[in-house]
Amino acid sequence: MTSLHPIILILVTGVPLFGALLLMAFPNRDRDIRWFALIVTLVEFVLSLHLPVYFRAEKAGIFQFEINRAWITSPNIHFHLGVDGISLWLVVLTTFLTPLCVLISWNSIHERVKEFFILLLILETAMIGVFVSLDMFLFYVFWEATLIPMALLIGIYGHERRIYAAVKFFLFTMVASVFMLAAIIWLYAKTGSFDFADIQHAIQMGSIPGFAVAAPWLFLGFFVAFAVKVPLFPLHTWLPDAHVEAPTAGSVLLAGVLLKMGTYGLLRFNVGLFPDQARRNAPWIMVLALIGIIYGALVALVQPNLKKLIAYSSVSHLGFVVLGIFSLTQAGINGAMFVNLAHGVSTGALFMLAGILHERRHTYEISEFGGLATPMPMYASLFLFITLSSVGLPLLNGFIGEFLVLSGAFQARALYGVLAATGVIWSAAYLLWVYQRTFFGVNGNPKNANLHDMYPLEKIAVLPTAFAALIMGVAPILWLKAIDPAVHSILQSHPFGQITARVVGQ
Amino acid sequence: MILQLTALPNQIMQPPNVDYIRILPELVLSAFGMLIMVLDPVIDQRRAAKTLGFVALLGALASVAATFLQAGSPGEAFSHMVRVDNFSIFFHIVILAIVVLTILTSFEYMETQRIRAGEYYGLILMGAAGMCLMTSAVELVLIFIALEISSISTYILAGFLRSDPRSSEASLKYFLLGSFATAFFLYGVALMFGATGSTSIAEISTALRTGYVPTLAFVAVAMIFVGLGFKVGAAPFHVWTPDVYEGAPSPVVGLMSTAPKAATFAVLLRIIFEARVPGTFWLVWVAAVLSMTLGNLGALRQSNIKRMLAYSSIAHAGYLLVAFASAPASGVPSAMFYTASYAAMNVGAFAIISHIGNYGERYVSIDDYAGLGRRHPFLAAVLTVFLLSLIGIPATGGFFAKFYVFSAALHANLVGLTILGVINSAIASYYYLRVIVVMYMNEPQGEVVPLTPLPAGVSMVLVLSLLATLYLGIVPGAVLTYAQDSVRNLTHEVGYQLSAISHQR
Q1: Do B418 and A185 touch (CB under 8 A)?
Q2: pTM for the full model?
Q3: Which chain B residue lies closest to A141 (C-alpha atoms)?
Q4: Hey, are the CB atoms on A75 and B418 less than 8 Å from each other?
Q5: Rounded distance, CA A308 to CA A313, Å?
Q6: Does B440 contact A152 at a Cβ distance shorter than 8 Å?
Q7: Hey, is the C-beta of A189 within 8 angstroms of any chain B C-beta?
Q8: How many CB atoms lie within 10 A of CB B79?
Q9: A252 and A348 in contact (C-beta within 8 Å)?
Q10: What is the DSSP string of B409-450?
């Protein structure tokens, strides 16, 4: 299998797109189309497992499986792909969630089935491309490329206010990312290269004329683009709309992967390229993250709509990630990366579960439900499991990441740690409360009495996430052993003057 | 001194034969244009439209062949009035490609609108001859004549939907304001002659660089810029654009929003970067910012797709002008690339509009596009690509066009202009997106737009412009390299060649 090394990233990035192209030529038989999409995404998942299997964790700080070919000579754009410990698991997260999205959409998408799966597959290629691109131009291309399929998924297959949500989503992201484009072009105009490593090197050597003056603006340019995507308070307003209106698969990928593109970008570009600016701006960014954590949780607490509640819980959880990254400590960033993955798994699962309920009752209003544990025992227990993992119960995936982030925040500033810790309490409050209102109590509404428990297909879609949540909680080392050295090398190559004690291997 | 030649009759010699090769594309176009005029009354009326269309197509293709032929013998002709170089060949190809696509679109259009074709195709070829000549002329009076040839044809073409008062209004407005603009241009040329003693671009360049620059030269430059600004529809000289684009026949709008603009931008490039006249920086800067902003803000409120694209063309003229404020080495190639990719997407978009418009161009409201994604997936998908390209989404020509322009500007340290540019392109995404939303997410309300089968001509246009848009967006290298090579002829100086865009590691 090692013979795959030189082309594995091309395969992993290209297979879904290739599948989408084949699907375009497919006859219009919905059943075949679903099976085909499932097979493509499963093959893709198996292929992507090549990466962690052959990944050399001791060298996680440098890019592996690199491929670098000239694409366009002027401007000097390379088809340069590679993964390090930061991006490795995000790729696998993407390939893990996409087949589940195919399964959960199996029966819920009836119209324009072919287009749906074509968009889904194109989206998968674009998302993976974002994580593996080492050429900033290529990165931007993939970044923008995620936008269109996602906007179409929301706008065509979503609920009532889908068009408003799709346009809002598109515009927020588009407007923000042109600032990133301006920053990328500036760097290119001054260095003549789009290559991430080259630009990083040039910045470290101080060989870019005018960099000192431009750096704050460049940092802001990148920051705005990523902060909207994360989304960081106060740029989060597109998220609840997009989530509520999106079809289930759209929500899963939006929360599970697209938001991670923002945090990934913050770490890779904002911290990786502009360490001085990152340190200088860390205080106010952390304050925004804290506001996001607490505000997101409080708003989630009072949401009458189940999907909106999960959406706001994302704002809160992603606040943890940003807090961890800008604590600029080993523990904090490790934790941030781990929360990224954990949130992807458990929030993805929550959205699938919410979608299953919507299938049956065509509503997300929490007040419509109650006592669901009686007709749907299997569903109720899976929901509880995922809820607990999202709350951060020890031995499930949510705990370890938040713990690391909190310890990083305490190292950066004790007050931040204290405030962030309240977020954990809040999340327990809103999630357990919604669980209680939905599943326990009196079954007031007769419509709920005869709801069917989970169908086999739904079980197949949700159970993998539950397993993943458990394994991630019990053996986080499997993930951290790749993340930790990569984070270490980011922190070590810059004089952050913070505690960079390794978490793993001591 | 071109103007003195007439005073010295014994110096006038027969121009060498190669001189004719250097205007061969224009000659071919004029010959075919006249042939159409002659043929029109003699052939059978029922088949006239098709036949004349094919003759015109043949003429345009022959002219393309002539352009390739003349590429083998670059150089000056007719006492330094015409120069064939990479620069002129690039624009010849762009203009002729637009003309070919326009003719193909017009086949169906002529039929559905029930217009007598006759001089329509002749005028297109005549206009094309003028536009082509604009790009190879290096003498201001000749440029003026070429400009007039192209303008007069387009004035008439704009009014070709004779039954529609909007079309006549468009023609008249275009004519009045256009004549006004050419007067400005001519006045500027006269003043430039007064200031430098020549109308040849090369000699103006020498005069302005070696000696004292009289105030008159600045006034002349301003006049010339106003005249050409009108022609490209740059703010603040843009007010005619929406009305004219709304009223004129759609294939003609596709033509006149791209080809004469490309030619005029070529002239502007020669004047600004080859003659290197003084004092253009702020003129261009202000016009660029105004065009981008007014164009995009205006487009936000339009419900008629032709008017929307008219405002969008103002905005695109603004983006293009950003390149004119940059240094020549990166500004010229980026402007050239921009005209090519804008032509590809805009001609394609107007082909779709003229197909959907139906008799009397009834269906030109954005709401008429509702449900197109379901009813005609191919048309909707192609229009989506053009619109995404107009927004500037990666993997389309429009993206690289903007990209090159903004990197040229940043390389010249025009940070403010670039920021305004990118903010504008973000605003612009809203109104293009709206059309995509309507096509895919809305259902038609009220009257359902009848969709006729896609004729071969329009399909060819769509496929060709789609391929061009994607080609420029995925492998832009070849076109850009060609454009960069042509800068060498334009600026003469080796020192100029330190290009940001061709920067190699």
Answers
A1: yes
A2: 0.83
A3: B394
A4: no
A5: 8
A6: yes
A7: yes
A8: 16
A9: yes
A10: HHHTT-HHHHHHHHHHHHHHHHHHHHHHHHHHH----SSPPP
CB-closest option in A141, A170, A186 to B394: A141
Kindly list the distances between the CA atom of residue A504 and the CA atoms of A87, A342, A487, B416, in Å, as whole numbers in the listed order: 18, 18, 11, 47
Cβ contact (<8 Å) for A192 and B403?
Answer: no
For every one of its 505 residues, what pLDDT tens digit does chain B have, with 9 covering 90 and above? 444 444 445 555 677 777 888 889 999 999 999 999 888 888 877 777 788 889 999 999 999 999 999 888 888 888 888 988 888 999 999 999 999 999 999 888 888 877 777 788 999 999 999 999 999 999 999 999 999 999 999 999 998 888 888 888 889 999 999 998 899 999 999 999 988 888 888 888 888 887 778 888 888 889 999 999 998 988 888 888 999 998 888 899 999 899 999 999 999 988 888 777 777 888 899 999 999 999 999 998 888 999 999 999 999 999 999 998 888 888 889 999 999 999 999 999 999 998 888 777 788 888 888 888 888 888 998 999 999 999 988 889 999 899 899 988 988 888 889 889 988 888 888 899 889 888 887 887 777 778 888 888 899 999 999 999 999 988 888 888 888 888 776 665 433 333 333 333 3
Nearest to B418 among A72, A182, A192 (CB): A182
Between CA A66 and CA A72 the distance in angstroms is: 18
Please answer whether residues A373 and A380 qualify as being in contact, where contact means their C-beta atoms are separated by less than 8 angstroms.
yes
In sequence order, the 6+-apart residues with CB closer than 8 A to the CB of A224 are A176, A179, A180, A235
Q: Minimal Cα–Cα distance from A335 to chain B, Å?
A: 34
Task: Return the biggest CA–CA distance within chain B.
Answer: 75
> What gap in Å lies between CA A161 and CA A164, rounded to an integer?
6
A284 Cβ partners below 8 Å, 6+ apart? none
Are B394 and A140 an interchain contact pair (Cβ–Cβ within 8 Å)?
yes
Q: Which residue among A144, A189, A193 places its CB closest to the CB of B410?
A: A189
